[in-house]
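User: Fold this; tokens only.

Assistant: Input:
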Amino acid sequence: MSDVETLKAEIKKLSARATTAKMNLHDFSEELPVNWANAPQVAQDVVDAYEKLDAARKKLKQLEQA
């Protein structure tokens, strides 16, 4: 499997994780003010997931342009 194919598979996994994190944030927001103290962690999970996804997409773009 080439680097590009491997990275595309990883992006697919990261995208699913990011979507799950986004939905967790959405569900969390609907339950507010219950468990409000967990807001920073839930939000950080979304930030982390999308940062990883964005970095992988940028790397793929670089590989494809090379």
